[in-house]
Amino acid sequence: MTSEVKKFDTLLVANRGEIACRVMRTARAMGLRTVAVYSDADANARHVREADEAVRLGPAAARESYLKVEAVIEAARRTGAGAIHPGYGFLSENGPFVEALEKAGITFVGPPASAIAAMGDKSAAKERMSHAGVPLVPGYHGDDQDDALLKSEADKIGYPVLLKASAGGGGKGMRVVESAAGFQAALDGCRRESQAAFGDQRMLIEKYLTQPRHVEVQVFCDSHGNGVYLFERDCSVQRRHQKVLEEAPAPGMSAELRREMGEAAVRAAREIGYVGAGTVEFLLDADGSFFFMEMNTRLQVEHPVTEMITGQDLVEWQLRVAMGERLPLAQDELTITGHSFEARLYAEDPEQDFLPATGRLDRFALDLVGAGLDPNKVRLDSGVESGDVVSMHYDPMLAKLIVHGDDRHQALATLNRALAALDVQGVVTNRAFLQRLATHPAFKGCELDTRFIEKNEATLF
Ligand code: ADP
């Protein structure tokens, strides 16, 4: 149940890095007081420096700091924070955390715990989605887990199939099975992996799409029963299921397909009583058919490309919805202007199998004016500044470079100029890799699918 709506004047951001800074930027603009939380490794981090107040959570390890439910709630109590924004990762999709907040009378800037739970289990989520009339990849997601039954379901679906752990996430417990002969061994392997990672062996089987695009729809619902979609993002450029370069709108979408996918995404959200910002991920096949993959019940890393093409501030929408307000706009008031890209800058070494890099950032700057770039068209969302130390404790993403252009061609040209103008010294990053991606003829030509990087390996490395 959604707890009673309360106004709040102080927001605690239970996160770090670029997303903590980004959330606080909007909170400040809305006149809210901001509270940061930090681990010992982040005592002097940018998000701590920028907050009105900051509370130490514990040692560097995330499970002793950013993942510690009681410590975060205690920090909110001590600072009089009436609401908590979880960012992404950490506690953002943690049902028990949201329940604890509901009990403590603190507003969670996100969906009710019941909506998180509904999407937490892949098999159960598929059942709900099928009920709501959201298209699913042909497959099996039943309770009966007998070996022979699973095998006959796989035979029926037709190879290649994808085995997925029902309880899975982060690409773990997933295996492609090319033919009937390999099924049993793959099933055994997948079950072992899933048991080890999630303490659960249930599997679902899907038709394996060989060249799908990853297209996801941004949805928003308020607590008054209104729901809209803010169009889609194409996130097909992935390395080991991790997104690297995202764009909005997705190239080549017809108005009709856009509306169909958008409406399916809103149906998905309504089915589970969703409130706030959510993302419904689909696989889009070359023939224009699309299939529900999962719903992320939080703000996504790549939300800025949607902000760029709609002119909306999604964090402001989140905070307004959390305060009990209605959605700022109706579906027919939302439009797409131009095209946007986001490139994720990681502290990692593409020359060494993308090994995370650490060290002191001697320089981290983007001189837009010097590079002749329009500050309204380029945005750098970062959690670091010159002089900061990049540790090995957390996600190696340093910043996101987001650009806007009148069309895809212009936006891509701006992205390349901005990447070239970015001055990073002291820590190895994937910048040159991003530049090779953003200038790649196949990327320029919109030859997108989730194996883009794999397929173009010879010319990207
Ligand atoms: P996780 O929750 O572990 O991230 P997902 O179900 O979201 O797992 O799938 C992760 C990625 O695997 C997707 O982004 C897509 O690239 C690929 N994938 C998932 N399902 C299929 C499928 N049926 N066919 C082809 N690729 C798939």
From TrEMBL:
Report whether Nucleotide-binding shows up as a keyword of the record. yes
Q: Which cofactor does it need?
A: biotin
Segments forming domain ATP-grasp: 126-323
Q: What keyword terms does UniProt attach to this protein?
A: ATP-binding, Biotin, Ligase, Nucleotide-binding, Transit peptide
The reactions it catalyses are: N(6)-biotinyl-L-lysyl-[protein] + hydrogencarbonate + ATP = N(6)-carboxybiotinyl-L-lysyl-[protein] + ADP + phosphate + H(+)
- Report the protein's function: This protein is a component of the acetyl coenzyme A carboxylase complex; first, biotin carboxylase catalyzes the carboxylation of the carrier protein and then the transcarboxylase transfers the carboxyl group to form malonyl-CoA.
Give the lineage.
Bacteria, Pseudomonadati, Pseudomonadota, Gammaproteobacteria, Oceanospirillales
Q: Which organism is it from?
A: Halomonas campaniensis
Keyword ATP-binding included in the entry's annotation: yes
Within the intact protein, the region shown is 1 to 461 of 683
User: What name has this protein been given in UniProt?
Assistant: Biotin carboxylase
- Pathway(s) served: Lipid metabolism; malonyl-CoA biosynthesis; malonyl-CoA from acetyl-CoA: step 1/1
- A molecular function GO annotation: biotin carboxylase activity
Known partners and oligomeric status: Acetyl-CoA carboxylase is a heterohexamer of biotin carboxyl carrier protein, biotin carboxylase and the two subunits of carboxyl transferase in a 2:2 complex.
Q: Which domain of life is it from?
A: Bacteria
